[in-house]
């Protein structure tokens, strides 16, 4: 009986100690630099990656409408997450121009930024639906045939024109 209690006590002690040690790493909050790096990765790799599939179809007729549908649906999902990549004041003015091209207008003109983000999501979903319906002409009209995302009708250009600054050298 006594040894059992002793053993239970040891187990309990081990539990309490491990619980006390655990939370140390968990409380780490992302720094501004980390937020910006994650944002550029999101734009270049995630959004840009899906765009490449659309651009190839619009410009060279490469791939299928099924490919376009898939990438456009992925873009619509990515678009919903766009605002979460822009926490307040994580742009130029607070961080070096070399690190970020995000302009302060994103936060001083937040309603417009929100509106274009929403348009990006809506137009991407519309593109997916048109591709699914097999409407090739309407699909190419939205994507464009130049390969340039700023000339598409998805909202990339509208947003970049107002809220993305020049590349710093
Ligand atoms: C609602 C606004 C908004 C929309 C919509 C948007 N972007 Fe962006 N994008 C930005 C901002 C702001 C930056 C700059 C981010 C930074 O540097 O911190 C950026 C950066 C980028 C970059 C990084 C490379 C560079 O030189 O800046 C790429 C690539 C990009 N966007 C592609 C796209 C594509 C493709 C679309 C549409 C399919 C799109 N974006 C839609 C706001 C937007």
What can you tell me about this protein's structure?
- This protein is mainly α.
- The chain has a single domain, classed as Cytochrome c/b562 (Four Helix Bundle (Hemerythrin (Met), subunit A)), CATH 1.20.120.10.
- Helix 3 packs antiparallel against helix 5, helix 5 runs antiparallel to helix 6 and helix 5 runs antiparallel to helix 7.
- The chain binds heme C.
Q: Any descriptors?
A:
mainly alpha; Four Helix Bundle (Hemerythrin (Met), subunit A); 7 helices; 169 residues; globular; binds heme C
Present the secondary structure layout.
Blueprint: H1 2-21, H2 32-60, H3 65-81, H4 105-108, H5 110-132, H6 136-143, H7 156-163
This protein binds heme C.
Heme C binds next to helix 2, helix 5 and helix 7.
Number of helices: 7
How would you classify the helix and strand content by structural class?
mainly alpha
Low-confidence stretches: none
CATH architecture: Up-down Bundle
The CATH superfamily is known as: Cytochrome c/b562
Binned, the helix content reads 55-70%
Query: What hetero molecules are bound to the protein chains?
Result: heme C
Over the alpha carbons, how many angstroms does the gyration radius reach?
Answer: 24 Å
CATH topology: Four Helix Bundle (Hemerythrin (Met), subunit A)
Instruction: Kindly state the number of beta strands.
Output: 0
N-to-C order of helices and strands = HHHHHHH
């Amino acid at each position: 009986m006594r040894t059992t209690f002793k053993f239970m006590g040891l187990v309990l002690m081990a539990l309490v100690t491990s619980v006390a040690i655990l939370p140390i790493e968990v409380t780490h909050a992302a720094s501004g630099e980390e937020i910006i790096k994650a944002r550029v990765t999101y734009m270049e790799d995630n959004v840009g990656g899906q765009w490449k599939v659309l651009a190839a179809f619009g410009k060279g007729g490469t791939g299928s409408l099924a490919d376009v549908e898939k990438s456009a649906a992925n873009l619509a999902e990515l678009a919903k997450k766009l605002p979460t990549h822009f926490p307040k004041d994580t742009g130029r003015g607070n961080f070096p121009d070399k690190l970020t091209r995000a302009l302060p207008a994103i936060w001083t003109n937040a309603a417009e930024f929100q509106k274009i983000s929403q348009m990006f999501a809506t137009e991407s979903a519309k593109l997916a639906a048109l591709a699914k319906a097999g409407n090739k002409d309407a699909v190419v009209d939205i994507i464009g045939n130049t390969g340039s995302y700023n000339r598409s009708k998805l909202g990339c250009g509208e947003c970049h024109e107002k809220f993305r600054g020049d590349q710093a050298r």
